[in-house]
Sequence to fold (146 residues):
Amino acid sequence: MSDNPDRFIDGLQNQIYEDTRSSYGERAFERWQNMRYMRPMEDPDGYAVVTGPCGDTMKVFLKFQNEHVQEASFQTDGCGNSAVCGSFAAEMALDKTPDELIEITGESILEFLGGFPEKDRHCAFLAAETLQEALNDYMIKQRENR
Fold:
């Protein structure tokens, strides 16, 4: 009898995982389970904070070396979907030049993920917009340091 609540909870957890995997895809599910690049960064070369229309706020941090992104990270106060998209935006930014970073859009993040439910697509656009604002911050600093 004491085993029943544990079995119920395990079954419910497994159902949630399967529903999430089915709705968001394997790549997003795996990242949700094993989040990467989610941390602040000391002295970033480029930094931005953007609040999306849903109320989620995302921060992106970029460090450059030899005109390539050496390190990228993010933070969000938003949902797991925002975190997954921020994580992939940071990953996609690595080793890119400023010209290559411009090509990272909400659509390219969604393509990299393999899709996303319509109601959550805005999270990819928030991640891309924040990344672009961090790039803009970097470019402004470069112009000021000339």
